[in-house]
Amino acid sequence: MQTLELPLVGLLPLLVLLAGVEAWLGRHLGRGNFDWRESAASLAIALGQRALGLVTAGLIGSAFFWIWDHRLFTIPLDNAWAPPLLFLASELCYYGQHRVSHESRWFWASHAVHHSVRHFNFSAAYRLGWTAAVTGAGVFFVPLVLLGFHPVAVAAVLALNLTYQFWLHTELVPKLGAFEWLFNTPSHHRVHHASNLEYLDANYGGVLIVFDRLFGTFVEERVDVPCRYGLVKPLDSYNPIRIAFHEWLAMANDLYTAASWRERARYAFGPPGWRSECMTERHPSTR
Description:
The chain is mostly helical. It has helices spanning 6-10, 12-29, 36-69, 82-103, 105-115, 132-135, 142-146, 151-165, 186-193, 210-215, 240-257, 261-269. The chain is globular.
């Protein structure tokens, strides 16, 4: 949900400071992965995302409150079981939304912005797509409101989810032992951002990693396979506008050159990189 990304970006000055501290620490330790031009582009993208999010927040919020007015049930959060249920349900919805954002090009066109970083560090956390509202990504969280959780509570728990994920974007934190069985960690998220074939399309969780383990999308980071970050075909640009819209432009070109409406539907909603001559495989030029 575009509006749910705003609290994370609202902390932007603190996050930028932490990214600077991480960069200094990584340089001091001889570790880490930094490109100041890429980090500057991420900051520009974050500012653009915030501005666009403020424009769309009212419309999205109104839609969710309309759904609230037509909810099936009401789940009071003063019940002891309600907050844990909301947390688990929101994690499941987030897992579904995040997974579809990798499996359908329509959603990937926005999410690809986040994965375009080639240097994995804290600044990657606030490189967020500008067009999540256009794709309708918020629909994945509609069931939470329809079943009776208040929209403000849903927004709050998902904002906490995204805030938690900030610290996942680093190479400076090693594996964390038993903690990794239940929770998402930097190690798990490094795999998620890697473009190695061994790691593609894995570890979609937000705070938890349990749904990846349950649904077969969990992949563990391997010492013998260092993560290579970015898109399969790297995006060699520091231009925020190009980064924000490159996949939409590629999709528009594919739709224009498609031979039929069936092909157009596949290009728009099929897997990223789908090609008519290779209907079941990803094409490395886009993912």
